[in-house]
Amino acid sequence: MITHPRTEELAQAVGAWIDQIRPSLDPRNAFLARVAANAMATIGRELTLGPAAQARAVARMTALLGRTGDQAGLNSELCAKIRSGELTLESPGLLAALQVMARDQLAIDQPNYRPEGTPAP
After folding, report:
1. Mean pLDDT, the chain, as a whole number?
2. Cα–Cα distances in angstroms (integers) from residue 64 to residues 42, 77, 85, in the given order
3. For residues 75 and 65, what is the distance between their CA atoms, to the nearest angstrom?
4. How far apart are CA 5 and CA 102, in angstroms?
5. Domain boundaries, given as residue ranges, for the chain
6. pLDDT tens for each residue of 29-39
7. Tens of pLDDT, residues 51-96
8. Residue 19 — φ and ψ, nearest 5°?
9. Are 7 and 47 spatial neighbours (Cβ–Cβ below 8 Å)?
């Protein structure tokens, strides 16, 4: 049976290769290589963590808004209701939903970020 590497494995391999050659590069290209390696790592996390994070966000926004829809549409409506003042921090469930969605996004974009008072894993 022929098997192929998963997309996240390919992203990880490319990022590892970039990190391997980076020390031999001139400073400018070493910096650009670091940026590229970070981008590959973000792509890998998006592939592995993104679907579950999106599903949680959709579920939370559906509960807050009382309707179903896709992530983009629900997010747009949620933002509009927050801007208009229809939803505030006093709205039941809003703050908790925003916190979970922000943590999920940070786990993908900046996995080493720790908000004040958050213990390291």
Report:
1. 93
2. 29, 11, 14
3. 10
4. 30
5. 7-109
6. 999 999 999 99
7. 999 999 999 999 999 999 999 999 999 999 999 999 999 999 999 9
8. -65, -35
9. yes
Give the DSSP letter string of 19-86: HHHGGGS-HHHHHHHHHHHHHHHHHHHHHHHHHHHHHHHHHHHHHHHTS---HHHHHHHHHHHHHHTS
Determine the Cα–Cα distance for residues 56 and 59; give it in Å rounded to an integer: 5
Q: Are 107 and 41 in contact (CB under 8 A)?
A: no
Structural contact between residues 113 and 120, judged by C-beta atoms closer than 8 angstroms: no
How many angstroms separate the CA atoms of 121 and 117, rounded? Answer: 12
**Six token digits for residue 68:** 């179903």
* Contact (CB, 8 A) for 53 and 108: yes
> Nearest CA to 44 among 24, 71, 18?
18
At residue 116, the pLDDT reads 74
Phi, psi of 120 (to 5 degrees): -70, 150
Give the predicted TM-score (pTM) of the model.
0.80
